[in-house]
Structure to design on (552 residues):
């Protein structure tokens, strides 16, 4: 992929500190590496990926390779939500990422969400090659569209693939596909929820963050889930006046993965971006010592 | 026994090329008819495979008020079937096409990495182990099943996931109906859960099951015969909900 890549990034140790030794990008991708994101004491390289026009046009492919050397720390993010414009014919907008994370290194992929406009077609694939004690944070999320303007789950096709490999061994293989269907539209399936979030945490440095997240989500959801009234019997419910049952504005759960449980994936559905940002800000705040800044900090 | 019967298929596990398939029409018809009995036994809920310990996320969906009535249940079942088709049918299909140990191990390991939802992952291994144990005991003419079980029981490299085992067993018996059968047992189990959770009565569940059958067939046709690289999940909301299952009272998962 290197030759045809739209962008290529390499972070290596230079004089004992994480440094950007390669940063290439061509149209429509632009990479910005601000030199002072966190305090000097923090050893982390930050990269912002931008697209000319603020989004991805139908038929465009943006591909990027990222290499984080042993012991290095890098954060890969965006300046704003990635917009995916309406599809031209059956053409897709595409984003591809291939990342290699070295021993004892940390890569945090913490973008803003993807927002697909009406009729848009979007495909995303991220492949992470990790070593035994690599650390990885991946936030992959998307919204229902410009929902505040009424454009809700109106895109045609969304597919996001995330693969994590340890050598040849697949650790985490996920593919989420949403396509307008004949039975139920995407909107009918998603109900009042407007944001879907996936957070992957992997590696020894993130153990305590995983544990804390797990505990807090358990507490949050056990307060929200209640056994159905009267044993959920259909027979008694018919006589009650029809009313909309109270549903949690944010649903979150998590699962460990990997033979030795070194990884954790959290899945969230929220009714608004504000709630989702707040969730991410809260749970990923513990990354600040590693990255020098807290992801998704309120501006 | 005549060639073409399930006994000759046992050697497929170890890729023996010794057996010859003789084309004897009347024997083929007999074999075809006797297959029905085996297939029906696999689909019958009375086969003790422990399918009823798994709620497919329905319990959590009810507790979060996502499913409150029959209409919601219909939508839920169809979404579960759509997700089953897109995520799991490739594993059933590939296992049924190559019902041998090496292919099965690869599929099982890949599904272990693909079922990222712990609740679904545990349910899958529990159902898969039970199914293999039962099938090895019941379909004794298919030696391959006992061999497989004996070789891998206790091994850390496999998890005995449901979809590949289901495909493997069908592949050794009759691969043609494997994918439809898998969709059927999933649908059967979700309706069973719904009645046990008192969401719907058994007769109404049967009525709804029959109504949903054409949708199930359509989804089977849509998602059939695909490679594992195409496996995707299509219900992220239900996935998030299913992960909340830790607080259940009735079902294990």
């Amino acid at each position: 992929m290197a030759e045809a890549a739209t962008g290529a990034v390499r972070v290596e140790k230079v004089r004992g500190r994480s440094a950007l030794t390669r940063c290439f990008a061509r149209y429509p991708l632009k990479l910005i590496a601000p030199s002072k994101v966190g305090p000097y004491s923090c050893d982390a390289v930050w990269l912002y990926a931008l697209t000319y026009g603020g989004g991805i046009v139908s038929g465009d492919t943006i591909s990027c390779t990222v290499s984080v050397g042993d012991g290095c720390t890098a954060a890969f993010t965006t300046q704003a939500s990635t917009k995916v414009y309406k599809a031209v014919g059956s053409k897709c907008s595409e984003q591809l990422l291939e990342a290699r994370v070295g021993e004892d290194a940390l890569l945090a992929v913490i973008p803003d969400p993807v927002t697909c406009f009406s009729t848009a077609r979007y495909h995303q694939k991220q492949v992470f090659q990790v070593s035994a004690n690599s650390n990885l944070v991946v936030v992959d999320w998307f919204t229902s569209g410009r929902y505040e303007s009424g454009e809700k789950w109106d895109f045609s096709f969304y597919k996001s693939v995330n693969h994590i490999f340890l050598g040849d061994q697949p650790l985490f293989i996920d593919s989420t596909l949403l396509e307008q269907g004949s039975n139920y539209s995407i909107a009918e399936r998603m109900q009042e929820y407007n944001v879907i979030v996936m957070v992957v945490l992997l590696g020894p440095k993130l153990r305590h963050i995983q544990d804390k997240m797990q505990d807090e989500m358990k507490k949050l959801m056990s307060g929200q889930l209640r056994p159905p009234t009267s044993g959920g019997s259909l027979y008694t419910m018919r006589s009650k006046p029809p009313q909309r049952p109270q549903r949690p504005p944010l649903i979150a759960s998590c699962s460990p993965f990997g033979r030795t449980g070194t990884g954790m994936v959290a899945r969230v559905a929220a009714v608004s971006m504000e709630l989702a940002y707040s969730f991410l800000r809260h749970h990923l705040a513990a990354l600040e010592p590693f990255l020098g800044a807290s992801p998704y900090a309120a501006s | 026994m005549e060639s073409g019967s399930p006994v000759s298929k046992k050697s497929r596990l170890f890729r023996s090329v010794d057996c010859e398939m003789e084309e004897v029409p009347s024997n083929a018809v007999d074999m075809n008819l006797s297959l029905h009995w085996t297939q029906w036994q696999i689909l019958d809920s009375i086969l003790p495979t422990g399918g009823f310990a798994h709620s497919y996320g329905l319990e959590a969906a009810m507790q979060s008020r996502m499913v409150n009535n029959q209409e919601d249940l219909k939508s839920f079942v169809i979404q579960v079937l759509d997700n089953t088709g897109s995520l799991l049918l490739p594993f059933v299909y590939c296992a049924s096409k190559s019902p041998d140990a090496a292919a099965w191990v690869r599929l099982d390991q890949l599904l272990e990495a693909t079922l990222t939802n712990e609740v679904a992952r545990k349910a899958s291994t529990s159902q898969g182990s039970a199914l293999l144990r039962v099938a090895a005991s019941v379909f004794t003419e298919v030696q391959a099943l006992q061999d497989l079980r004996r070789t891998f029981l206790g091994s850390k490299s496999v998890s005995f996931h449901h979809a590949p085992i289901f495909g493997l067993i069908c592949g050794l018996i009759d691969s043609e109906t494997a994918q439809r059968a898998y969709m059927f047992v999933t649908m059967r189990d979700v309706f069973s859960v719904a009645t046990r959770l008192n969401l719907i009565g058994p007769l109404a569940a049967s009525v709804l099951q029959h109504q949903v059958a054409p949708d199930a067939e359509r989804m089977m046709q849509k998602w059939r015969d695909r490679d594992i690289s195409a496996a995707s999940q299509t219900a992220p909301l239900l996935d998030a909900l299913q992960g909340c299952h830790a607080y259940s009272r009735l079902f294990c998962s």
About this structure: Chain A touches chain B through 53 residues (CB under 8 Å).
